[in-house]
Amino acid sequence: MTGAIKSIGATRSPAADRQPVWFEREQNKKEKEQNAKGEPSGLSDAGPFTSNPYELIVIGECCSFTKPVRTASYTRFRTYKALAKWLTDNRDSFLESRDWWDLGPKDASELDQGCSVVQQDLLRMLALNDEVEMKASSFSRFLDECELVWPDGVASIRILFSPEAKLAWVARAMAPFLPKSGGPITVKTLKRLYATVPVRGNPLNKTVHIRCEDVLEQYRGRMLRPQGNGPSTDSASTDASSS
User: Fold this and answer.
1) Which of 131, 101, 96, 132 is nearest to 117 (CA)?
2) Of 201, 213, 9, 190, the residue nearest 104 (C-alpha)
3) Domain coordinates of the chain in residue numbers?
4) Pick the residue with more confidence: 229 or 73?
5) CB atoms within 10 A of CB 95
6) Helices and strands in the chain, H and E counts
């Protein structure tokens, strides 16, 4: 069945559809407010992120990690390097767009490897154990202390496993298997695909847990667009039955 998938996510998301995932730094926002009032800017209080986190720097479609001056274990260093490379190779569209939709699977081979929005699957996909002995608990701790940093914003690396990321991943995994008739997508159709589309040999519904109703509400229009190389084209909106 996975052979039917040609290029999931090779298309760019139209700007009108994008749902930004990034957050402007609290310090930047406070400085702007103070500048607008003519007040001197200073350091803001810490936001919802780890103090002095390790940072994966994003420029365009590329992500990189440079070992900081402070001490970092070899295992931690290799983890962040591998994660930055994986994002650059497999989520370059997301790095540029910062859109949840672009966290979906990129091609058929990814479904054979696992589900990247499930932490244990991503750990396996990074193949860290080929170089270092990585425990799931260590990987989880490293994720807690890491941020994705754009020139104008920041987000916890844990957005990769958020409910929004899971919805986008499932929507894009199922999209190529939708009927080619162009008719409306129904909850019944999505539930059937949810129970049959294979991810690393297991049905999708055994891999990541979502509500098909939420997928339909959020991504009905985008799932109907052609999957392939080149820019996305808008298709006629169709109303879905809730049957």
Assistant:
1) 101
2) 9
3) 2-223
4) 73
5) 20
6) 9, 6
What's the CA gap between 165 and 187, in Å, rounded?
20
Summarised one tens digit per residue, pLDDT across range 117-155 is: 999 999 999 988 766 778 899 999 999 999 999 999 999
Count how many Cα atoms sit within 13 Å of the Cα of residue 143 in the half-sphere of its side chain. Answer: 19
DSSP 199: E
> CB count, 10 Å around CB of 234?
12
Per-residue confidence (pLDDT) for residue 74, from 0 to 100? 85
DSSP for 165-203, written as a single string: HHHHHHHHHHGGGS-TT-----HHHHHHHHTTSEETTEE
Name the helix (H) or strand (E) containing 149: strand 146-150
187: nearest Cα among 205, 208, 204, 211: 211
The whole-number pLDDT of residue 66 equals 84
Q: Tell which residue, 70, 60, 48, 66, has the closest CA to residue 91.
A: 60
Helix or strand or coil: residue 63?
Answer: strand
The pair of three-digit structure tokens given for residue 177, joined into one six-digit string: 């298997």
Q: Are 17 and 101 in contact (CB under 8 A)?
A: yes
The pTM is what?
A: 0.74
Residues in the chain: 243
